[in-house]
Design a protein that fits this description.
By secondary structure, the chain is of the alpha/beta class. 53% of the residues lie in helices and 12% in strands.
Length: 283
């Protein structure tokens, strides 16, 4: 059998095996393939790290587990940055699933920084009836939280909330958003009503409808900053000087695409080679 004929008859099992290896290797050993940097993500990172020391920042988990690939790297970078800058972190969520996930993902970061619970950060957890909570919190945020944290401990005993009585006392909100409720509702209830000037949208939604909506809100200054999808997450990691989950996912995608392209090229070489040999034989 000629070489060209062999190239057109590569066993599909070999293709799947090579594809699996090309995906698994960067999953465990990310190489950090350069990615096109998101201008919006760069601006958000720069603006966020320029907040005054001691700023009270809400990290709101407004997403399900399905958004983990995009949002987990964003959360890890921004929490690490917030602790480096000496901000006070308030961790909560408008989605029950997201509130549990962000509490789990942030614990290793808090431990690495030796952050003290109740002094450097606090876990509020899931807030039921999020629309009612957003409305009530504008005037009395402690009462909206029912005066307790996620573990039932009274808020009055935590210095991290010192001077925080209403939404006006919050410096910034980072909404890690997937759908409804999410950053749009933080904007409508807080930003649009003037109780909080800094609402950032960090979203895993990258379809065209959402992209244009975010861009329109950002251009109108209805939200302070935007980060979208895996590209935005990888940009935040690059700005922070880490090669993390977003880069690993990008590496996996890139190697998978290159593998597929490699076999497509081989197949076409084989096909064109056979046509050339047939044409020569007919002459």
């Amino acid at each position: 059998m000629s070489v060209f004929r062999r190239l057109t008859r590569i066993d599909v099992r070999l293709i799947y095996l090579v594809l699996a290896v090309s995906i698994l290797l960067p999953m465990f050993f990310p190489v950090g393939i350069p990615v096109a940097k998101s201008v919006h993500a760069i601006r958000l990172y720069d603006e966020f790290r320029s907040l005054p020391e001691g700023s009270a920042v809400i990290f709101s988990a407004d997403f399900p587990l399905a958004a983990k690939v995009d949002l987990k790297p964003m959360i890890e970078v921004m929490v690490d940055l917030a602790l480096q800058k000496g901000y006070r972190l308030i961790v909560m969520g408008l989605w029950e699933e997201g509130a549990g996930l962000i509490a789990e993902w942030t614990q290793p970061i808090f431990a690495r920084h030796e952050a003290v619970y109740g002094v450097d950060y606090i876990i509020i957890g899931y807030v039921p009836q999020p629309y009612d909570w957003l409305e009530k919190s504008r005037k009395d945020i402690r009462e909206a939280w029912h005066q307790v944290d996620a573990y039932g401990k009274p808020l009055a005993g935590f210095s991290v909330l010192e001077g925080i009585d209403s939404a006006q006392d919050i410096t910034a909100v980072l909404s890690f958003s997937y759908g409804d409720p999410g950053y749009v509702h933080w904007m409508q209830y807080w930003r649009a009503t003037g109780v909080c000037d800094c609402v950032y949208a960090l979203s895993s939604e990258v379809n065209m409808v959402v992209t244009w909506l975010q861009q329109a809100l950002y251009s109108a200054s209805s939200i302070q900053g935007i980060v979208r999808g895996l590209g935005g997450a990888a940009t935040l990691e690059a700005m922070h000087g880490v090669v993390g989950g977003a880069h690993a996912e990008y590496d996996m995608q890139s190697f998978a695409h290159l593998t597929i392209l490699f076999f497509v090229i081989l197949g076409n070489i084989g096909y064109l080679g056979r046509l050339y040999k047939i044409a020569r034989h007919r002459k």
